Amino acid sequence: MNLWLWVLCILMAGTLSAILFHRFHQRLRQQLTPIRESVVAVEDLCSFNCQTIHFATANGLSLEGWWFTTSYKHKGYAVLTHGWGSNRMALLPLVPVLLEDGWNVLAFDVRNHGNSDEDTFSSMPRFAEDIDAALLWLHRNYDRRATVLIGHSVGAAATLLAASRRRDITAVVSLSSFAHPANMMKRWLVKKKIPFFPLGWYVLRYIERVIGYRFEAIAPINTLARIRCPVLLVHGDNDVVIPTQDAHQLANHADNAVLRLVAGGHDLTPNIVQHGTELVGFLQAARRS
User: What does pTM read for this prediction?
Assistant: First the structure.
């Protein structure tokens, strides 16, 4: 075959390969992009001392949240972080429990969620960046009293990551966190019927490159051990999204964590208020320690 024809064939094959990879990456990003769920008007907010706030986060973007203040003896602050594809309304049932116990509450939407700004992609480390932004707003506007972090699912994993980098957190409450993002992604691959070798392995490496972190560095099973304050791990005994095995793995890898299995699935919102006394008891004990 003519040399130039060989060269043309190679170039065409390379171009086709590049196009296929580009489309594959686009499809993968679409699959991993959260569906935005906008915040709607909530009548019950009228019964709270609540204001809508906006504050800056990374990449020059703005986040929206609710700031609740209590009329009871002010003990400190609670920052609530929702999960993937959700918004600040998800943990709203916890607000009355915390306010009654004397905690001012900040519930906010992370990037690409709720009413906050859009960014190029979402990831657990970016959730953690937004938690840091919420804490910066809090400390710039109010005193440095006891501060607790409460998160759900990916928001819980991000809460553990954020707390592992700080020394100004009084307590952490993790609701339905996974133990390791690689294992969570492998379960996702099985659900999508994508074989791990070679395609699934490539997917995991590609995601690490996009988010800028190795999974091992941000895995809750590793970040939990670096947290200095008490941690309460809450998990539903019928969670089909993140198995209870993950919760036990987390509890077994940290001396400062307590595991509480409760009746329910992945979304613990309908159940968690029933355990409000235990929750505030844990926060009170952490505040005194």
Answer: 0.90
